[in-house]
Amino acid sequence: MMVFGSLIGTFWHCLSDFLGTNARAWGEVWHIPSGSPVTGRTFITEVLAALGQPPRMRRLGRGMMTLAGLFNRQIREAREVLYQFEQPFVMDTSKFERTFGGSVTPLREGVRQTIAALQSTP
């Protein structure tokens, strides 16, 4: 069985091996399989746990982001897309899974693989 997730290599594999070369995919809209939505806090906690670091986070509200955005372009731009993070972003990938099979890489495993790949790259 194939295992999918939102890892870059897996994403590319789905695009090139399924959607780019399979006639069943042509003329259709597809969502590449990904795991259940998680909060930013959960994601950061998983990454830091994999690195052996304690999680230390603070929330920056809209008002503070507006103020900080006056001095920092990246924060100003982040505030403009904040709506994308205020509710779960859920895609229905059942069509892809029914057509091509596969399962999703669990978050913890995906984080572990990503960190291992980054640490092995000079």
Labels describing this entry:
single chain; 122 residues; mainly alpha; two-stranded parallel ribbon; 2 strands; 3% strand; globular; disordered N terminus
Describe the structure in your own words:
This protein has helices spanning 8-19, 40-50, 62-69, 73-80, 94-100, 107-120, and strands at residues 3-4, 103-104. The protein is mostly helical. A two-stranded parallel sheet has the order 1-2. Helix 3 crosses helix 4. The radius of gyration is 18 Å and the shape is globular. Residues 1-5 have low confidence and may be disordered.
Please summarize what this structure is:
By secondary structure, the chain is mainly alpha-helical.
* Spatial arrangement of strands, main beta sheet: 1-2
Mean pLDDT: 82
- As a whole number of angstroms, the C-alpha radius of gyration is 18 Å
**Total number of β-strand segments?**
2
Characterize the main sheet.
2 strands, parallel
* DSSP summary: helix tally: 6
Helices and strands, in order, run as EHHHHHEH
Give me the secondary-structure category: mainly alpha
Calculate the terminal CA-CA distance, rounded to whole Å.
Answer: 32 Å
Helical percent range? 40-55%
Task: List the uncertain runs.
Answer: 1-5
Estimate the strand proportion: under 5%
Mass-distribution shape: globular
SSE blueprint:
Layout: E1 3-4, H1 8-19, H2 40-50, H3 62-69, H4 73-80, H5 94-100, E2 103-104, H6 107-120
Parallel strand pairs: 1-2
